[in-house]
Task: structure prediction
Amino acid sequence: MFKRKPKQEKRHFRPSKVTICIGLLDIFVISCLGIIYCSKDFKTFWIPTAMTTMHHQYLAYTLYSEKEVNKVMSENYIVENQEAIDFDAIVIGDTSEKSHYSSEYERQIFTRDEGNDLYKIIRIEEAKFKGYLTVIYDPANVELVVPEKLGKYGQSVAKMCQNNNGLVGINGGGFEDLDGWGNGSTPYGAIIKDGELIYQHPGGDGGLIGFTKEHKMYLTREDPQTAIQNGMWDAVEFGPFLIVNGKVSQIYGDGGWGTADRTVIAQRQDGIVLFLVIEGRQPGYSIGATMKDVQNILLRYKAYNAANLDGGASSTMAVNGKLYNRPSAGGEYGGRTVSNAWIVVDNRAKTQEN
Result:
C-alpha cells in the first residue's frame, strides 16, 4: 500500500520592509530622472552651467547627448552691445544724500552708513541667490591691483587689499586654471595699470574692462595699445559686457553662462562705481545667478556701463583685509588666489595734494 505524501504548503514570497523601501526608492529615482531629462527648465539650467565650468563639462554629457548639448547652447547666448563708450555721458558730481528718492534702490545707494562716506555695502537676497553690492561714491577711490610677483603666483583678494591699503576688494580677470587648481599665477589676456600694458598672455577672449585716468569706465574690444592711446588707464580682460551707454546686451536664455557665482563691475552716470558679488553653487543657501539676473540687479541701481568679471569659485569680496562673502570654494583659506583685483582706497589726501 502506497502512502500518500502530505501536501506541501505553498510558500509565498513576502518581501521585507527594506526591500520594499529600496524598490520604491528605485522607482522614485527613475521617475525623477525621467522628469529631469524631459524638463526643459532643468535642461537649460544644467547644460550651460556645466559647459561654462573649466573642468566639469562632462556633467552635461552625463545626462544628454552631444546633439542635445549643442542645441541647448545654441539657444542660450549673448549679443553684446558694441557701441563705443560715451565718456561725456558720465558726469562725476554730487553724490551726497538726497531729500527725495525716486526708488528704494536710490535710497539704498545714497543713504550712507554712519561714519562712512567712502562706500556702502548692500546685501542682495533673492529667491535663488545671495550676494553683496558695494557702492563706491567717488570713482577716484577705485584702483586695479596685482600680486606682488605678477606672472609667478597669485594672491587672494584679501591679501592684495592688505598690501595696497584696500578697504574693499573684488576679484578681476581670469587666469589659467589647470585641473581646477590654478593659483592665479598666469593671468589670461591683458592687464593695463597706470596707462601701461604690464602683462599679456594668450587665452583672454573677452574685452578690456577698466577706467580712464579721469575715472570713467571704459569697455572696449580694442587691442591694449590702441585702448591706452584712447585713454585706458587701468584694465583687465574678461566679459561679456552687460550694459553699454545705458543699453543692455541682448541675453537669450540664460546667456550660455549657466547659473553660478558672479562678480560684476559697473558705473552709474553720476560716477558711482558698483562692485557686485553673487554667491553660488551652494544648494540650500545660494545656487547662483545667470547673466540676466545680474544685469537686472544692476539696472535697478541704474548702472550705465557694466561688465562681467571672473566668476565661479574666484568670486570673492574682501573688506578690511578679510574675506567678506561666502565663496563656493577656498573660503577656509581666505578665498582663492587670483591674478588681479579691483579695490577701494581712500585717495582723498592724494586728491587734495593735487
Notes: Residues 17-75 form one domain. The longest helix spans residues 17-38. The radius of gyration is 26 Å.
